[in-house]
Amino acid sequence: MAQNQPKNPEKHSTFIPKEKKSTKPFHKTPLLDQLESGPWPSFVTGLKRLAHNNNMMVDLLGQLEHSYTTRKGYWKGGTVSVFGYGGGIIPRFTELMGSDGKPMFPEAKEFHTLRVQPAPGNHYTTKMLRQLSDSWNKWGSGLIAFHGQTGNIMFIGTTSENTQHFFDEINEYGWDLGGAGPCVRTGMSCVGAARCEQSCANEQKIHRTLVNNFIDDMHRPALPYKFKFKVSGCPNDCMNSIQRADFSVIGTWRDNMKVDQKEVKAFVKAKGRKYVVDNVVARCPTKALSLNDDDTLDVDNRNCVRCMHCINVMTKALKPGDDKGITLLIGGKRTLKIGDTFGTVIIPFMKLETDEDYDRIREIAASTIDFWAENGLEHERCGEMIERIGLANFLEGIGLEVDPNMINHPRTSSYVRLDEWDQEAEKWKNRKQQAAG
Amino acid sequence: MAEAPKMRPPIESGCPDAFQYMHPLMIKNYGNWAYHDRPRPGVLHHVAKSGDEIWTVRVGTQRQLGPYEINLLCDIIDKLGEGYVRFTIRSNMEIMVSSKDKVDPLIKAFEEAGYPVGGTGNSVTMISHTQGWLHCDIPGTDASGVVKALMDDLHEEFVKEDMPNRVHITTSCCQINCGGQGDIAINVQHTKPPKINHDLVANICERPSVVARCPVAAIRPAMVNGKPSLEVDEKKCICCGACFPPCPPMQINDPEHSKLAIWVGGKNSNARSKPMFHKLVAAGVPNNPPRWPEAGTIVKKILKVYKKDAKDWERIGDWVERIGWPRFFELTELPFTKFHIDNWRGSRHMLNQSAHIRF
């Protein structure tokens, strides 16, 4: 580790604010102290600096060290909210009581977190970062996590009373609480069109269109459980929406991938033919690529599944096509309560250009949330409900037709009633005829 | 009766517009980028169709920042950058500048301030994590501490791009797994059913909603010592701790029996293979603050074997799919147990339904 030591971890760990505002003596923290060495920036050093600023952080360090000693956590939830809202705050009360029944670390007995929605793509100016930090230093512990796993800016540690003051202050200059509890949650989107040539969508607009359409469902939790929107501009899915969002929007395209053969040749020349065959052609999951004898690239676009691999490798030569849109997947989530589920394709492709297109995606989101709110069980995510009732019933509930892109393969179990087969086959034929015009 | 104080109604502005905080070149070229490359680890270079270029310096942070850290970083960005910054999903900061000349001075300043520049391309980027003992109500461990200890060890892999492909590591403080999945996921598994304080349940807990939360229907209402309470069928219980948040008298925290487990091969990208969930490879790893050396040893071993054995562009999951799980356990020298065989519903498709065997 010695050679990796940064030039000045000492500077950080010995930095003491000139003015010590906290009045409590520091607790001894021998275990936490061990996390101050090493090359990575230390959150413990940060906590200690904050402890110079307020007594809450002095006692927070005391409780955290106690957790490190006993290997147990000591927080429990409760109910705290700001006026007009029902959620958006994670209340935390200490469970750590002394023999007299009073909190062992009284200054940190309340240590609530406010969830605040960042802009799509998590963009900030330094001016705005400082302003948020100043407000939190005034009304809270000063500690901010950029960002929580749901996508919020997490303002960690304040009292019930100060939550309102802090919210009022930042709400005046443009920030709003995110979701906590059974509600629509803060959304996430990748940097996308702002800085990425692989973007196939207007992530910022999709993100704000969807989330801000359900702001009442975010601030007043009344759904079966959480509901998350995440937007990725291409199938690389940098936002992990497919695994972590109930409503996952992923940019894609449906015409031919764009190939600049001159750049392909330049890439082959620079990297060698073996590299291109081994790392581009051979890694194509559907064998849709072939390197020609003259070092140009053949693409079987009909069989391309738009996985992004070759485009990721040859960033200059290959690009998504021009006919861009999105794929929509519903029902991704983490473990609770039936185990992990990926999002399922619900719309293989739709354009998102006109106001009508955006109305359409809003409608799909609204019917999904409405149907789930009516049919979901207590603490049941949308994906779990789909698993329980079956995809076909869900599609019928929200008014969408079946599509073979929704499945990996058709059913294998023959234990099924097929009484209405003819009517269903007729529907398919009619849709095909309509599509053909 | 005195009039109640007038409360300020909230401005329900929702998600703010990003364009007010975005670098001017990003606004100008929104949706019109041509290509990108990586001049060195930690730096991205994007070229727009207009010919404009933007450089991004990526900096690792400790995620939880105070005013000192925020002002220190903002001072550097204001002095040497252009005042614009964004955060990645893994809590790295990205500083965008319009001129190549500004890149090296920025890197130098961040490194001198103790902040590593890296995390791009085929590196081990910052570990995404949850709140742990600092703020969560059912944590088995402290994610921030595990991450700090591991990132100290993996610092070199953050500042270099030496891996076969990118490596995303995640931690979660319990098996509910808020931290998500990754190429390597370090999760705590509570291994003992909750201890119930029956005197408190009736007063604190809404019993039907606690019953509804249990993923395996192990909780049922019961009368204990003449009071309404809950009981847990311990044979069914999978020790997830989901009953604790609505019912704090069902204590899941256990200093001795909560252990870390290591999972590998998750990825969300559609690149090459379809997205994959992570799979269990090691469990029973001691929850050993403040440095969790046992977990670190296993993670480093997996990374070392992956780095040596995987082909270019193979994520950990792609690599294991190619070489097969028996070979993975052989190479990493991790024991294979009956607990690696899933017994959750619908798990038979995970068994080997073929004669495909490597010798």
CATH fold label of the largest domain in chain B: Sulfite Reductase Hemoprotein, domain 1
Major beta sheet of chain B, specifics? Answer: 5 strands, antiparallel
The CATH homologous superfamily of the largest domain in chain B is named: Sulfite Reductase Hemoprotein, domain 1
Mean of pLDDT of chain B: 94
The H/E string of chain B reads: HEEEEHEEHHEEEHHEEEEEHHH
Number of domain units of chain B: 3
End-to-end separation of chain B in angstroms reads 86 Å
Q: Structural class per helix/strand content of chain B?
A: alpha+beta
- Roughly how many Å is the radius of gyration of chain A? 26 Å
Helix tally of chain B equals 9
* Largest sheet report of chain A: 5 strands, mixed
Average pLDDT value of chain A? 94
Q: How many β-strand stretches of chain B? A: 14
Estimated radius of gyration of chain B: 24 Å
Pfam family, one (chain B): NIR_SIR
Cofactor (chain B): [4Fe-4S] cluster; siroheme
Protein name (chain B): Sulfite reductase
GO molecular function (chain B): 4 iron, 4 sulfur cluster binding; dissimilatory sulfite reductase (NADH) activity; electron transfer activity; heme binding; metal ion binding; sulfite reductase (ferredoxin) activity; sulfite reductase activity
